[in-house]
Write a structure and sequence with these properties.
homodimer, cytoplasm (chains A, B), 6 helices, Alpha/beta knot, alpha/beta, seven-stranded parallel beta sheet, five-stranded mixed beta sheet, RsmE_MTase_dom (chains A, B)
């Protein structure tokens, strides 16, 4: 019997392969979700697409899944980074969840001049990203990068267009050039960009300021809105 | 000294008018936000735009604000409803917050065939809408309607286009007709629409099914994404 459960695993997936379960995975599948031997679920590992598997052995401390057939090919998200300035824990968690659902390939917490972010627990955010990928049907889990200063990231900026969302532009229609290739979205921090940051961003080659309407959006709202504009114009929503 | 505080009030606002404060408002301004006599803040009432005011009297159980000049005209959001099926309390609160930030004019919780929503506390959601409007700079607070069955709403559907977001369409690019006038957005419930609902929606004049990308979005993510598409194409983000 197939369940709606999707589980991210590390192991290679292919017809006839078996996946041994960790204690935590066994607890989740058998203790929390009450699966028994013979129950079906779907697996993905970020490399081999999505596969159906069946519980072959179920125990308190482990178990084995038997993989049968592929249900979806690997569908990597577009080469898009989401950069944002984390402030409060709950909102940061939300932004990570939203970035995964909306199809960012990499999630980059940044420290700006006007954010005094508490330390960011990258490992915890990475677990949120895995859970969001399990939930939303993604076959790849975006990487959550370590917190870095925005100025440092801009010092060594790669060949990648940058859509930066700036409240200072309220009233301008959002427009993106029809330019494929790697992109990053930068969500303005809740205190806004500093003058130095804004000047620097505006002067960067390949940087495109975008306004997100006439109201002030919270960072998590702005992240979804910016990802929507990008995905509809240039990404995998087309 | 001007603070960043924006307060929604009931009273008429105009140059020279005074606003008596309720006990709750006095507690918030003087107890929580620590404003004193002479402190500045901004007021809106959904009718007269945004005005600067100054604390004229401050007490434990009340106070008076003196209104001086208008800082923004009334800017009503476009005539857009956001309809959604509430499930969990926290997500419902988020959807209301997001709908206000994104500029919906009316927020309509609906019960669909596959949602068994707990009772919706409209009064509590209306307070969330007010707080979101205070936060995001809106000059109008959207009305939160009472929970109604989707089928009942469709039985007496007005002359209003309907964008309905349907996971079943994943893979189709999101497209809206260039049709101004009143609209509603309907977010699919987390369990999806029933076949009967989908058939009925597809057969409605002025209904436009829209896919929100290849991944499954949570209802609060879908609300922001759908509002973004609409606002950028037809609303006040243009």
């Amino acid at each position: 019997m197939a369940s709606d459960i999707r589980l991210y695993v590390d192991q290679p997936l292919g017809a006839g392969s078996t996946v041994p379960l960790s204690r935590e995975q066994a607890h989740y599948l058998f203790g929390v979700m009450r699966l028994g031997v013979g129950a079906g679920l779907r697996l993905f590992n970020g490399r081999d697409g999505e596969w159906v598997a069946e519980v072959a052995e179920a125990g308190k401390r482990g178990g084995v899944l038997a993989v049968s057939e592929q249900t979806a090919p690997l569908r990597p998200p577009p080469d898009l980074w989401l950069m944002f300035a984390p402030i409060k824990k709950a909102r940061t968690d939300f932004i990570v969840e939203k970035a995964v659902e909306m199809g960012a390939a990499r999630i980059v917490p940044v420290q700006t001049d006007f954010t005094n972010s508490e330390r960011v627990r990258t490992d915890r955010l990475q677990i949120h990203a895995i859970e969001a990928a399990e939930q939303c049907g993604a076959t790849v889990v975006p990487e959550v990068a370590e917190l870095a200063r925005l100025s440092t990231l801009l010092d060594r900026w790669p060949d990648r267009r940058l859509m930066f969302c700036d409240e200072g532009l309220a009233g301008t229609p959002p427009a993106l050039p029809d330019a494929p290739g790697p992109w990053a979205i930068l969500i303005g921090p809740e205190g806004g960009f500093s003058d130095a940051e804004r000047t620097r961003l505006q002067g960067m080659e390949g940087a495109h300021p975008v306004a997100l309407g006439p109201r002030i959006l919270r960072a998590d709202t702005a992240a979804v809105a910016a990802l929507t504009l990008w995905q509809a114009a240039l990404g995998d929503w087309r």
